[in-house]
TrEMBL record:
PROSITE patterns: B302_SPRY (PS50188). The lineage of its organism: Eukaryota, Metazoa, Chordata, Craniata, Vertebrata. It comes from Asarcornis scutulata. Residues 1-179 form the B30.2/SPRY domain. It comes from the Eukaryota. GO terms for cellular component: axon cytoplasm; main axon. This is TRI46 protein. GO terms for biological process: anterograde synaptic vesicle transport; axonogenesis; microtubule bundle formation; neuron migration. InterPro entries: B30.2/SPRY, B30.2/SPRY_sf, ConA-like_dom_sf, E3_ligase_FN3/SPRY.
Length: 191
């Protein structure tokens, strides 16, 4: 089921709810954390270009079905123009108390196949806007789970996708590398 969820839009009829953060990130480094309820069916946690996230969920499901092939059948090369471009969004897929790691992940997991790891109590998401990179962490041990590129050519928003129901608790923005004052346990720190 987790592998099928990696191709988020399928022709099955599950409820899919997208929650997009109300604050778009346009510069700097930002970090936030969330707790995903381990009993959630499937949850995707990540970031995406604000404009593309809204477009994504307005497209009919049949168009983005895995059975739909956007190849025109000719070799004009037009389909290859965005091969090297980073994707407009990056999500970590969570379900049944586990995290599915995408192929090419650098994480050393306890799973002999290297495909899933246990869901930590909190997941941290760090977006480096200038580098066009998002990293996902076990927010308790600060061990990196997965890192990938993401298109930061416009405002980028935190995003959460619930497939078939789920729950998460979003923690307040922890740090932002834009001279914000962060209070931790009564101590103040300027980044």
């Amino acid at each position: 089921m987790l592998f099928a969820a990696e191709r988020l839009m399928t022709s099955c009829h599950l409820s899919i709810d997208l929650v997009i953060g109300d604050v778009a990130i346009t510069q700097g480094k930002s970090y936030w954390a969330c707790c995903v309820d381990p009993s959630s069916y499937l949850v995707k946690v990540g970031v995406g270009l604000e404009s593309k996230l809204q477009e994504w969920f307005q497209v009919p499901q049949d168009v983005v079905s895995p059975r739909y092939d956007p190849d025109s059948g000719h070799d004009s090369g037009a389909e290859d123009t965005t091969v090297d471009a980073p994707p407009p969004y990056a999500f970590l897929t969570i379900g049944m108390g586990k995290i599915l790691l995408s192929h090419g992940s650098a994480l050393t997991s306890r799973d002999p196949n290297g495909c899933t790891v246990p869901l930590p109590p909190r997941i941290g998401i760090c977006l480096d806007y200038e580098q066009g990179k998002v990293s996902f962490y076990d927010a308790v041990s600060f061990r990196e789970l997965w890192e990938c590129g993401v298109d930061c050519s416009g405002p980028v928003c935190p995003a959460f996708c619930f497939i078939g129901g789920g729950a998460l608790h979003l923690q307040e923005l922890v740090a932002n590398k834009q001279e914000r004052k962060v209070t931790i346990g009564g101590f103040s720190k300027l980044d």
